[in-house]
Amino acid sequence: MSRRFVQTVSSVVPRLYQYSIDEVFCDLQGTTVPSLETAALLRSRVLKWTGMPSGVGVGPNATLAKLSNHIAKKFTDTGVFRIENAFDHAQLLSEIDVSEIWGIGSKIASKLSSLGITSVADMLNVDKALIREHFPITVQRTHAELQGHRLIHPWDDGTEKQAISCGRSFGRPVTTLHELTEAAAEFADRATTKLRAQGSVTSVIQVYARSNPFSAHVTPYSRSRTIKLIRPTDDTREITRVVALALASIFNERVAFTKAGVVLLELDAKHRMQTDLFSAFSLNQKAEAVMSVYDAINKKFGRRSVRLGRSTGKKNWAAKAEHMSMRATSDWQSIPPCY
C-alpha cells in the first residue's frame, strides 16, 4: 500500500522524497500549475486510487509545508491548506502547540516552554538571538524556516547514510542457532538491498542478539560481534556468510533470544571503492550482475521472490501479526464477500 501511495503521488508531481510509509515531501519548483490546484488533485487522486484519505499542506519550505499539513487535517474541511507567510496566520498559529513543529521533540518543546515559548506563534516571533543562545543549529534552522527561509531539503537527506540497520524482536523466543541464523540472514538481506539501492558498499558488519532484558527470572544476555571486511562489498551472499559466522560466535544454547539484528557500518559510495591487487575483477563483475538480477526480480515480483537458502525457512520466529487490518484495496483475499 505504501508503494501504491508513492506511485500515485509521483504521477502528479515531478519530484518527491518519501519521508515515511504514508508521508512524502513534494518539490513543486518548475511546475506551472498553481500549488493549491496541485494539492487538491493530489488529495483526490490518492483517495480514488488507494482509498486512503489524506491531508496536503503547501508552503515555501519543508517546515511550513509540514505545519500546513497539520492544519489541513485538524482545522479544515477540505484537507488542503497553504502557508505563504506564517505571520499572516498568527491567530491560528497561536492555537497550535510548539511541539507540532517539525523537528521539535518533547525535550526541546519542554525547554522552549520554560522560556515562555508554548505555541507556534511564540516560536515564530521569538528573537533569533535567544534561539541561538539556548539551542543547536537544527532548531535555529527550524526557526528560520518558520520565518520563510528555505534551509532544510528533505529530498537531499540520507542519500549516503553512514549506517544501515535491520533488526526485529521475535514473535517467540528462539533457542536454536539454525533459527537465529535464518532470522539474521533475513535481516542481512533487507539491509544489503537498502545498501545497493543507495549505491554504497560496507566495510564493517555488526551482528547483535539478546534475550529479554526485562525478565525477572533469567539474567539478561546481550552480545554483539563486529567484523572488519578485507574489502568493501554490497554482495548479499558475502555479507550473509559473515553474519552467520559472527552469530555462531555469540550464540549460547542456554539462552532464549528475543531479538537480533544486523548493522552495516563504514559505508562508502560504490563508485569510490578502491580494489586491491588480489581482487579478481571478473568475479566482481559476476557478483554485481547476480545482485542486479536479484534486485530486479524482487522489485518486479515482490520482496522474497528470490532469496538465499539460509532465509527460506518457515519464519516461526517472525513477529506476531494476528490483528492486521484488512487490505481490500491491494489483496484479493481481503475483499469482503457479497451475497
TrEMBL record:
* One cellular component (GO) term of this entry: cytosol
Gene Ontology molecular function terms on file: damaged DNA binding; DNA-directed DNA polymerase activity
Q: Which GO terms describe its biological process?
A: DNA repair; error-prone translesion synthesis; SOS response
Task: Name the Gene3D superfamilies on file.
Answer: 3.30.70.270, 5' to 3' exonuclease, C-terminal subdomain (1.10.150.20), DNA polymerase, Y-family, little finger domain (3.30.1490.100)
Key words, A-Z: DNA damage, DNA repair, DNA-binding, Plasmid, SOS mutagenesis, SOS response
Show the PROSITE patterns listed in the entry.
UMUC
Q: Specify the domain of life of the species encoding this protein.
A: Bacteria
Pfam families from the UniProt entry: DUF4113 (PF13438), IMS (PF00817), IMS_C (PF11799), IMS_HHH (PF11798)
Q: Which residues form the UmuC domain?
A: 1-105
Entry-linked InterPro entries: DNA/RNA_pol_sf, DNA_pol_Y-fam_lit_finger_sf, DNA_pol_Y-fam_little_finger, DNA_polymerase-Y, DUF4113, PolY_HhH_motif, Rev_trsase/Diguanyl_cyclase, UmuC
| Family according to the record | Belongs to the DNA polymerase type-Y family.
What is the official name of this protein in its record? Answer: UmuC domain-containing protein
Protein's organism:
Pseudomonas frederiksbergensis
For this protein's source organism, the top of the classification is:
Bacteria, Pseudomonadati, Pseudomonadota, Gammaproteobacteria, Pseudomonadales
